[in-house]
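ugh finaly. both done.
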Amino acid sequence: MSSEKQLILDFAQPDAMKSILPNPAILSSHGTKWEGIHVEYHRQSPPAETPEHCFQQHNIGLILNSVTVNGILNGKHYGSEPWQSGQIFIGGAGTDFQSGAVEDPEFMAIAIDPTDFDNTVGESTNSNLIEIIPHWKISDPLIFGIAWALKTELESGGINGTLYIDALKNTLSMHVLHRYCAQKPLRRDFEGGLEPGKLQIVINYINDYLNRDLHIAELAKLVQISPYYFSRLFKQSIGVTPHQYVTQCRIEKAKQLLKRRDLSITHISQQVGFHDHSHFSKTFCKIVGLTPKKYRDSL
């Protein structure tokens, strides 16, 4: 197909899949505060062929039921074959793809922004040009687990927050580098964690902005290292992940605010970065052993 006629889809746009699929996504990350990753969950009926197209992002397609699939990936034809739940295809940005009619497919589409991907894995390779090798009909338990966690997060309305999504995205990106890229990743030494001065900068920033949706990339930028290595070094320094640490800080601040009887529990939950009151109560109880109300009553 000529470049003038090729259908190029920008998964960052909410209606990107509308031109190739008959029905909209059941779940979508569009409208969330997720950065660098776009996720959709679909069940499509009736069967429909997709035209030849490519994505502007790196993409992963994950089948969630038993179906028969035939397709073309980067010009290579694959005949009709049975696919089982958990099997995937992977292609880098610009990979050509086309599928024949599939009977009632249930699947997830995951797209990672190439710039975000390069920023995440860049310190792990000597190459300035990272090439993802297309793969068709493979099984990968780690990708399946990450995809299922992303789907669960969409179903919950993003209850675990942006740092949790960032951690999943960064793990997925590094796994793709290690398993599906032409470049060989470098081995890195994590001994020692973050330098004390840099660690204090990050801790101060977290405490100043607990009420915000924080991202690993913004924390990593404070100390000028990649998001993936920041997470590893931070955990070595503190003993927990950035997401876990921020959650602990939010609960500690909530405990202080609960001493003020003039503040409602709903207001306090928002002040410490929980946008869902029920999730705040469950998290507080899990860490403290009491609900926020019972904790306040015990003071």
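ok and the 2nd:
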Amino acid sequence: MYKHTDYYKTYGRIMQFNKNKKEPIHRWYPFVEGYSREFIQSIVAEMESTDLMCLEPFSGSGTTALELQNCGIPCFSFEVNPLMYLIARVKMERTYDLNKFDYWYDYIVRERKNANVQLITEFNTLYQGDGKKKWNYDESVAVGVEKLKSVIETIPEEIYRELYKVALASILLEVSNLYRNGKCLSYKRDWKEKKLTEEDVFTKFDDKIKKEIRVDISNLGYTTNVNNKIRLYNEDSRIGIEKKIADNSIDLVITSPPYLNSRDYTDTYMLELKTLGFTKNYNEIKMLREKTLRSHVQIKWKDQSSVNNKLLYNTLNELEQASKDTEAWNESIIDMIRLYFVDMQNIFKVLYRKMKVRGRVYFNVSNSAYFNVLINTLEICASIAENEGFKVLEIRDARNLKTSPQQKEKVEKLLEGVIVLER
């Protein structure tokens, strides 16, 4: 339907966050999703000028805004997840002082030994306890984590308090009994045998500080006055962009929304959200999920809205027919799919109003499959954007992703790509 351009060689190796894991600042937290800094650089190189105002509706850990900041380009960004918002804030901070950094690190090391903590939580499986069959942290590990957390919270200077909180967040999964297993957290195979101590927690924290964060701060050097931290908002972009961004003001959008893969990114980072107090009970988790893009089934969505789009209409009909012969693992899957594209329409609608004439959008997304039916997310999103007034310049085919075992029978692979739009 639309022009597809082969970008497998160009994008195949830079469309993953893995390449950022050794990059200064980007490596401070082991983010799962997203693209590399090189992807941003490749787009900036395409632009005729760097005199741009940019927008990132789905900030994640801040890769887009941070890399644009390094290029001297201002960028507004929005992120609904409070953990990701904090990580992005910390990575975009420009005023770290090595002497103050060392002072507060020495303070943490000195105070953590004698910190008085209690393992109190509303989350039943977070800490080890009598009568429990499973728990996220062994008691000794939990004590070490809570000691670090309690001392960090007493640091009066916000930028260092937040920085050390991110350092702690970065080691939590490693010292826990869990690992990230695709869409969720699962228990490590040997979690009952492999025991860590309070000192192990301190050692891993110290290594993060000394081997990565301190090294990066000592080498910080900015050649630009652009500060994208002041343009970062902890808000749902479907609402926040309308309130915060002026019409006809944006030259460039680079973004990658949550994919239509039924992954709840609240679940993916649940350990950090619970441990660090971003969510204090199950009701707050539910409230956070309700603010996220409707790409998952953790909430039973009641909205009956739909998009008047022929390609989507045909896909939904095909899914309805296929689901009759297939046992669904969740009854809300088709509602999720329908509402995901309602959210996409809302995003494209507001982006069109905010962009300047000839402004560009680079929209990274992947196709999906359910009930052995291919959902051509790239083409559907392109057609929705076109209906809102955008010109679809091309779809850049980046790489092929594996389908789930349930879909392999009829859908062997899923295309990930970049939709390039112009106002």
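summary for the 2nd one i guess: The chain has two domains: 4-81+228-262+297-422, 98-218.
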